[in-house]
Amino acid sequence: MLPLTNEFDVQGRGDAARDARDRVVCMLQDWRLPLSEEILQAVRLCTSELVANAVEHGGGTCRVRASWTGSHLRVDVIDTSEAVPNADRPAWDAIRGRGMLLVDALATTWGWEPRGDGKTVYALFAQDAPAEPGAQPAPAPALAAG
């Protein structure tokens, strides 16, 4: 049954990024997706970075949505900030600002979409193993505006 989707709210506590990444990876393991351990590790790190950014810049809370289309996993982090994420290189001596560079390096692709009350930042991951027999890929999930 495709697509598979699950979402949850994240409260801006000190362990919010860790809790969110663990919850997403556990969800993916429960779904038994054809994703290697390497891809799961990339999902774990990217989810952590996206949630940390949303909590820091987006008012302290966010919503996380994971969607499997049959061939791609999309992790969305929805926050209330209008600040545009970027993967520009920070100054060589900066102690922060490299999170989106990691997302850029590890995800198949990433991007952001404005919303009426903030934005959605997403990371997309392609499967690296054949899908189960009979599984039909679905289009990537579209987000409702606003």
Quick synopsis:
With 146 residues, the protein is of the alpha+beta class. Helices cover 31% and strands 27% of the residues. The protein has one domain: Heat Shock Protein 90.
Provide a descriptive summary of the structure in words.
- The chain is built from three helices and five strands; from the N terminus they run βααββαββ.
- α1 (16-31) packs antiparallel against α2 (37-57) and α2 (37-57) packs antiparallel against α3 (99-106).
- The protein has a five-stranded antiparallel beta sheet, with helices on one face.
- Mean pLDDT is 83; it is low at 129-146.
- The longest helix is centred in the first third of the chain and has 21 residues, at 37-57.
- It has helices spanning 16-31, 37-57, 99-106; strands at 4-11, 61-68, 72-79, 109-115, 118-126.
- It has 146 residues and is an alpha+beta fold.
- The chain has a single domain (4-126), classed as Histidine kinase-like ATPase, C-terminal domain (Heat Shock Protein 90), CATH 3.30.565.
Compile the SSE list and pairings.
Layout: E1 4-11, H1 16-31, H2 37-57, E2 61-68, E3 72-79, H3 99-106, E4 109-115, E5 118-126
Antiparallel strand pairs: 1-2, 2-3, 3-5, 4-5
Helix pairs in contact: 1-2, 2-3
